[in-house]
Design a protein that fits this description.
The protein has strands spanning 7-13, 25-27, 40-44, 53-65, 75-78, 84-86, 95-97, 106-112. Strands 1, 2, 3, 4, 5, 6, 7 and 8 form an 8-stranded antiparallel β-sheet that branches. The protein has a single domain (1-126), classed as Virus Head Decoration Protein, Chain: A, CATH 2.40.300. The mean pLDDT is 88. The chain is mainly beta and 126 residues long. Strand 3 (40-44) and strand 4 (53-65) form a beta hairpin. Helix content is 0%, strand content 36%.
Length: 126
Amino acid sequence: MGYENKYRVTTIQALEDLNTHQYQAIALDDGEIANSGQEAVGILINKPKNGEHAEIAYEGEIKFRAGGAISIHKPITVTTSGYFVDAGSGYFVVGRAKATVTSGSIGTGLFNFKTPIYAYSSSQAW
């Protein structure tokens, strides 16, 4: 079960129905689901419909929806359709898993979308 702690939030206008996409990554340029760590601006906190304000957490301890199994302490990136997965070499890292999470579950991570790390290498020490 994921949980949240302190995080920073901003709002943007949802340009598609995001009612069923809570805890997925959102893109700033179009107010829709993000398709990569590079495009993602943060994690959707509320459940807005098209045209409503979307609350986006962009830094802090935030719940996320896993698109694959993620181990504790592993770097996280965004995959297509706004889900979060383990970051492999060459991906934009947007956060780190605070606990192990299974695919399709809600997890908790420490995130910073302001300055994603590019081209993470699995040989790099964190």
